[in-house]
Amino acid sequence: MHMLYDSDSFAVVHILANATDPEAAANGDDLPQMPRHGFEIVDKRSGKEVYLDGSWAEMFQQRIQAWQQNMPSQEEVEDTLEGYATLAQMPVVMH
């Protein structure tokens, strides 16, 4: 897991769900064919989270890459995260 963003309102974590285990690879164990990476967006105000994977994660990754090039303001980032937060249905629980 990699914390990508943390503010008073939101937290964004990049999760490498099927990251390769170096020991398993060395032993020749079966490894996932396609690692599933995703992003967890936590709306701290509502206490809910949304997990983006698949095409949603790909679109969000593109957004992050654009942010890295254009250096948006915090307000622009928060506005974008607000849009994703409307998808949040899961209450935040300790993992």
UniProtKB/TrEMBL annotation:
<dbReference type="InterPro" id="IPR021951">
    <property type="entry name" value="DUF3567"/>
</dbReference>
<dbReference type="Pfam" id="PF12091">
    <property type="entry name" value="DUF3567"/>
</dbReference>
<protein>
    <submittedName>
        <fullName>DUF3567 domain-containing protein</fullName>
    </submittedName>
</protein>
